[in-house]
Structure formats: C-alpha cells, structure tokens
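User: Reviewer 2 asked us to show a designed sequence for the structure in our supplementary figure. I'm pasting the structure tokens here. Could you produce the per-position amino acids so we can include them in the response letter?
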C-alpha cells in the first residue's frame, strides 16, 4: 500500500509518497481502507516543524481520516468488516477528562496518522460513522469538529439555545463551529479578513459578520451587536493577536475557549479582565473519542454537512497542503485517498 511520509520540519516539499510495508494485525487491531483525509492547520505546523512534539523519524501525517474496516484482528468486538469508521485524534482518550496518559499519542503527530491507503488502528480508537455523513464529511470530524464541539458544548459554561457564539476567521474549526452552533439554535457572529468569506458565512446562517481587517476594534462591534452583553462562547483560534479582544468580546460568565494561535503564541491577559466579569479562559485540546461519536451523531441528527472547500486527489497531497497554507480556503480541505 502507498502512504505519505514526512519528517517534521522537512516542509511541504518533504511530503513523499512511499510504498509502505504491510503487517499482520495484532490483538484488538483493525485494518482500515482510508477513503478521505482532511487537513488541519496543525498539519502545516507538523510539516514546518512547529508542532508541539518532536520525532526523529518520518511519520505518516494527518490526524483526520475516514474509511472502511477491511479486517479485524483477534478479540475485536467494537467493529466488523465493512463498517465505516473515523479515527480518534488521540487514540488513547476514549472518554472523560483528558490526562497525560490519554493524550500521550496523537495521530500524525508523534505516531503515524491517516494519509495512507490503509492504516491499522486499535478498535478503541475508532468511532462508527453515521449514515448521514459521507467519508469526505466524516474525515473533517476528528479534529476540527471535535474541537468546536468541545469548546461550545462540553467546556463552555452551560451554553443554551439563544446564547451567542463568536467564531474567529473562516477556517476549519470556525466554520464547523458555526454549523454546529447554528444547528443547536445559538446566535452566531463570524469574523474574517474577507468580505466574500463573510458573505458565505451569512449564507450558512451566521447572524452577524465582521471584517476584522476593516474593523480592527471588532470586539467593540461584538458588544454593539449583542447590546453590550457579549458572546457566551468565543472560539479563540487567533492567539496573541486576538486573545485580549476575545476576552473583551465575551459576556459576563462567558467562556473564551483557547484553541489556537494563527497570529502566534505569546502576550499576556490581564487577570483583572476576567475577575469582576467572571469570564473563563478554558484550554481546548481537541477531545475524546466519545466527543467524536457525539458530534457525528449530532451532525447526522440535525443534517449538518461540513463545508468542504476543495477535495484533492491522493496524488496531489502537496498541492492540498499548499492550498491550505495559502489561507484561501473556507471550511475544510480534503484529500480523496481513493481518487
Ligand atoms: N487546541 C486544539 O485542540 C486545536 C484543534 C484544531 C485547531 N487548532 C488551532 O486552531 C487554529 C485554527 O485551526 P484551523 O485548522 O481551523 O485553521 P485554518 O482552517 O487554517 O483556518 C485559519 C483561519 O484563521 C483565520 N485567521 C487568520 N488570522 C486571523 C486573525 N488575526 N484573526 C482572526 N482570524 C484569523 C483565517 O480566516 P479568514 O481567512 O476568514 O480571515 C483563516 O482561514 C490553528 O491555530 C490550529 O492550530 C487547535
């Protein structure tokens, strides 16, 4: 079988398609024919060597993939041949709160990921894909959708229909967050550098949109749009360039979900900006397999179909990475492994 490999830090040019050796399935293991893989900002960080973990040897990149069970090893009971499955971002985080042990390994980070024709995963790291999601759609779920789900519905301060969610930018996490929030009856405010992307966000049902380039004080605009109440949940993907504005834009008792750093990491948050307003900063680190199952079931039930900006064939993985790197995308970029 063929797989892509990359030595973290070798950059996108270092992404190479290789023949990968097959091996026997061990106890509890499942062989999966991968159909689709989605890219995340994190895959660019792995390629450029800026991701949290370091490894000495090339890895198969990408955390997010969906496919079909080809064969099961001894003792497997959770899935069977023919099942459609997606792999959990953290193979050892099945449920509950995270722990150092549960997040020890991450697909496409410190261990082999999903950008391969076939992968072998433990049955406990798999979530069945509900009928309403295609392989391409399910491939967007393990990182981006789980992160947005965790931020809005698991780690926030009891969000309820009618509450406001603020989504920064129009990348994978934020657009999935918009779709999930909309389906749950939440008010949504989306920021972007592009008026065209904001128009697309409105077509998806965003209640309000703000161009953060033309309105640098976008946090004030959020307060204005919410009659000075602020957003109950903020999906903070910007990092040092946005975090203080996100705190300002949050409602009293609201949650700023610390997710990413597309503008870099660093800076300071003044404790006083949280104190009298009882605002909460909560770190989000993707989520568990149970969250993956929950968000896929929610998408299936509510008819959420993740926005797929572009699908590249397997032979054009480098092109897919470069497109993602360009920032032109709206929603998710996917690689069709069967194409
Ligand atoms: N903690 C976690 O578990 C977790 C999980 C997933 C992702 N992340 C992190 O979350 C971030 C987003 O990931 P992603 O995969 O969604 O990335 P993505 O698809 O590449 O989207 C990034 C988007 O960020 C927006 N952006 C760039 N600069 C911005 C700024 N100064 N202010 C507001 N928005 C800005 C852009 O939107 P416009 O083009 O509309 O301006 C861009 O499309 C990354 O830092 C990633 O590492 C963390």
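Assistant: Here is a per-position design you can include in the supplement:
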């Amino acid at each position: 079988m063929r797989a892509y490999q990359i030595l973290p830090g070798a950059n996108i040019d270092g992404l190479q398609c290789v023949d990968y050796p097959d091996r026997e399935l061990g106890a509890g293991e499942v062989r999966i024919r991968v159909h689709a893989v989605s890219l995340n900002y994190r895959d660019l960080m792995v390629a450029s060597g800026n991701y949290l973990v370091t490894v000495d040897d090339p890895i198969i990149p990408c955390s997010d993939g969906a496919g079909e069970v080809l064969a099961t090893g001894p003792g497997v009971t959770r899935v069977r041949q023919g099942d459609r499955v997606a792999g959990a971002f953290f193979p050892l985080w099945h449920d509950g709160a995270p722990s150092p042990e549960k997040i020890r390994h991450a697909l496409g980070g410190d261990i082999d990921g999903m950008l391969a024709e076939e992968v072998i995963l433990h049955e406990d790291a798999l979530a069945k894909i509900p009928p309403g999601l295609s392989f391409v759609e399910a491939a967007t779920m393990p990182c981006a959708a789980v992160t947005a789900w965790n931020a809005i519905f698991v780690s926030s301060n009891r969000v309820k229909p009618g509450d406001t969610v603020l989504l920064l930018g129009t990348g994978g996490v934020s657009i999935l967050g918009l779709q999930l929030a909309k389906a749950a009856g939440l008010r949504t405010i989306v920021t972007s550098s592009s008026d065209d992307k904001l128009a697309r966000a409105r077509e998806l049902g965003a209640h309000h949109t703000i161009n953060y380039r033309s309105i640098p004080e976008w946090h004030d605009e959020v307060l204005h749009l919410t009659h000075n109440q602020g957003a109950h949940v903020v999906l903070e993907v910007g990092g040092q360039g946005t975090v203080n504005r996100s705190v300002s834009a949050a409602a009293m008792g609201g949650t700023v979900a610390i997710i990413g750093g597309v503008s870099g990491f660093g800076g300071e948050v003044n404790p006083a900006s949280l104190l009298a307003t009882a605002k909460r900063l909560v770190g989000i680190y993707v989520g568990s397999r149970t969250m993956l199952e929950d968000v896929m079931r929610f998408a299936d039930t509510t008819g959420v179909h993740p926005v797929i900006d572009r699908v590249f064939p397997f032979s054009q993985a480098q092109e897919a990475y470069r497109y993602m790197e360009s920032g032109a995308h709206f929603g998710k970029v996917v690689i069709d492994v069967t194409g």
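For the response letter, you might also mention the following. The pocket of NAP is lined by residues 40-42, 143-144, 147, 168-173, 191-194, 197, 212, 237-238, 241-242, 259-263, 284-286, 327 (CB under 6 Å). The mean pLDDT is 97.
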